[in-house]
Design goal:
Blueprint lengths: L7 E2 L9 E7 L3 E8 L2 H5 L2 H12 L11 E3 L6 E4 L8 E2 L7 H7 L10 H19 L7 H26 L23 H16 L16 H16 L25 H14 L6 E2 L8 H6 L8 E5 L7 H6 L11 E2 L1 H6 L26 H6 E2 L4 E3 L6 E3 L4 E4 L2 E2 L14 E2 L20 E5 H16 L3 H13 L13 H15 L6 H7 L3 H4 L3 E10 L2 E11 L13 H4 L12
Parallel strand pairs: 1-7, 13-17
Antiparallel strand pairs: 2-3, 4-5, 6-9, 8-16, 10-15, 11-12, 13-14, 17-18
Helix pairs in contact: 2-4, 4-5, 5-6, 5-7, 6-7, 7-8, 7-13, 8-13, 13-14, 13-15
Protein name: Starch-binding associating with outer membrane
Main location: membrane
GO cellular component, one term: cell outer membrane
């Protein structure tokens, strides 16, 4: 095997008129403008052509958006969580109708599911095809055209990959551009067809892209992004849900996955992740000198860093996540609330699980001496946060009772949060929701190097067992986290290493759109999501404090929910579109 070095360094989907979207934020992306233009006015003007491509970038992060799912009036919907709330990471912010709540309760069906994945992806795939068709006539030099074409083909693969993880096999358009007057085919391609198409598009695009993008091009697709997307798609394809254990049957057997298991799919996933690692241009953001695990928190505040491989660019001075996730005293609202199960998944600072009798876990002081990523990911009672419109920090009072001259307030459990927690992951500690004084230049990760290391470890462990390289990949993550010792126990079995990797993904990649898909592709969602979720109530009376777990919601999961249903509005358009099993 090639030696790897794990660096630890400091409407209508297809038809309709041409929609032009400009989204120039800090370089190739900024203020979004939308107008109805013709192909002639867009593609005979170089600035319009470049902006048309920027518009395709503008939706790359929709699937991972923290406020993706909404409830309330159609004209003014209110966010109540993202994909985190549809998993065992978090609870929706309001018990009102949304796709997230339907997944929580097991009531998801074709009539209520959001159509954003289907519509957004196909709209942008169609835009890519329009660009590729018209790019030759644009008044742009050939070198730039070559780059733009490669970026567009990566973006097309990106949107197909989103469709694939939602639905399984979907219809592949190729380069076709349909209008509302055309008979639009809707028959689904097989899962294998879609995987092969995405891989081929990434391979072609990678040939004409730099390994990384920098300067004004930072945020654009790169060769590294192509390699990383391949690694993710191949990891999913090798996983139990799709690799010979498909939930499909009859007509859906080859649409929902591969009919037969093939261990070699794990080898392909391992090699794909190794290809990203071997570029040598990505590394973890490490700083354990400032504070244990500080590099983990600092990473998400750094607009430019060596860990992000593909990212959603945001305007400088944004407070996107703070607006959703911070507590009411900082005027955040409508983001999902973390669950006790996620909190309990974080080990102690010595790397041992809190269930290990030798870990020194104290249930009467449950947040002490924990993995530093816990505090960087979860706001619990007395977590210090930046004060609004002022300097300094103050503790978040989530307790019930009285403490330090304070009583039960707007941030308290059962008042501001239904679980006793708020999300801290990716928040800038110097930023505050709705505060012009405290903002951030952060952009949002869509693929980062830590995921690639964990992808490699998982695939290699499944194909070869817990080799030294598997240990090195996981331990690089744990070392950056500030665990001491960070090493895993020697002599782990393949099953033990699998458990370690799965938990490491759960805590390292929390709130980054992984947990929902991971438990499905591992085919364990019937265990992780058929539970009664828990929250934490902290009762204080002066110096006296008691920690009491309580039930939040009975979750329900059924077999059909391993894949999403196609929206009923789309299935009704054509008998060719076969619905997923169980819906």
């Amino acid at each position: 095997m090639k030696k790897l070095y794990f660096k630890v360094l400091a409407y209508s989907v297809f038809g309709g008129f041409l929609v032009f979207t400009s989204c120039k934020k800090e370089g190739f992306l900024g203020q979004t403008q939308t107008s109805n233009l013709t192909g002639e006015t867009v593609f005979t003007d170089s600035a319009n052509t470049v902006s048309f491509l920027a518009g395709i970038y503008s939706n790359v992060g929709f699937s991972a958006a923290a406020g993706r799912f909404t409830y309330g009036p159609i004209l003014s919907p209110t966010p109540n969580g993202g994909i985190d709330a549809a998993s065992d990471e978090a609870e929706v912010s309001a018990s009102a109708g949304s796709t997230a709540l339907a997944f929580e309760t097991g009531t998801i069906n074709a009539a209520v599911v959001t159509d954003d994945a289907y519509k957004t992806c196909y709209t942008n795939i169609r835009s890519v095809n329009q660009l590729l068709k018209n790019l030759p006539k644009a008044p742009i030099n050939n070198f730039v055209k070559t780059q733009m074409k490669a970026e567009a083909r990566f973006l097309r693969a990106w949107y197909y990959a989103i469709l694939l993880k939602h639905y399984g096999g979907v219809h592949l358009l190729g380069d076709s551009v349909y209008t509302y007057t055309d008979k639009i085919p809707a028959a689904r391609n097989t899962y294998a067809d879609c995987v092969n198409y995405i891989l081929a598009e990434c391979d072609v695009a990678a040939q004409d892209l730099p390994t990384v993008q920098s300067g004004v091009n930072y945020g654009r697709a790169s060769k590294g992004a192509c390699l990383a997307l391949k690694a993710r798609v191949l990891l999913y394809a090798a996983s139990p849900l799709f690799n010979g254990q498909s939930i499909g049957e009859g007509k859906t057997l080859e649409l929902a996955g591969y009919p037969a298991y093939d261990k070699e799919r794990w080898r392909l996933a391992e090699q794909a992740a190794a290809a990203v690692i071997s570029t040598g241009v990505y590394s973890l953001n490490v700083d354990n000198a400032t504070a244990p695990g500080f590099g983990f928190q600092k990473l998400f505040t750094k607009r430019v860093n060596t860990e992000y491989i593909f990212q959603l660019m945001r305007p400088t001075g944004n407070v996107d996540l703070e607006n959703l996730w911070q507590p009411p005293t900082r005027t955040g609202k409508n983001g999902a609330f973390p669950l006790q199960g996620l909190v309990d998944a974080f080990p102690m600072s010595n790397g041992k699980s809190i269930t290990d009798p030798t870990s020194n876990y104290n249930p009467n002081n449950p947040y002490a001496n924990r993995d530093p990523r816990l505090d960087y990911s979860i706001i619990h009672d007395q977590t210090p946060l930046q004060i609004r419109l002022s300097s300094g920090t103050s503790p978040v009072n989530i307790f019930v009772g009285k403490y330090n001259g304070n009583t039960t307030g707007p941030d308290a459990v059962h008042v501001g949060t239904t679980t006793g927690y708020y999300t801290n992951k990716m928040l800038d500690p110097a930023a505050v929701a709705n505060d012009f004084m405290h903002r951030t230049d952060r952009c949002l990760p869509l693929i980062r190097y830590a995921e690639i290391l964990l992808n490699y470890a998982e695939a290699a462990n499944e194909y070869e067992g817990p080799t030294a390289l598997v240990y090195s990949a996981v331990e690089a993550i744990r070392q950056r986290a500030g665990l001491n010792p960070y090493q895993l126990p020697a002599g782990l079995s393949q099953a033990d290493m699998r458990t370690a990797i799965q938990n490491e993904r759960r805590i390292e990649l929390a709130f980054e759109e992984h947990r929902f898909w991971d438990v499905r592709r591992w085919k364990i969602a019937d265990q992780t999501d058929n539970i009664t979720t828990k929250g934490m109530e902290v009762d204080r009376d002066g110096a006296a404090v008691a920690y009491k777990q309580f039930d939040v919601r009975k979750r329900n999961f059924r077999k059909a929910m391993y894949l999403w249903p196609f929206p009923q509005s789309e299935v009704a358009k054509s008998p060719e579109l076969i619905q997923n099993p169980g819906y």
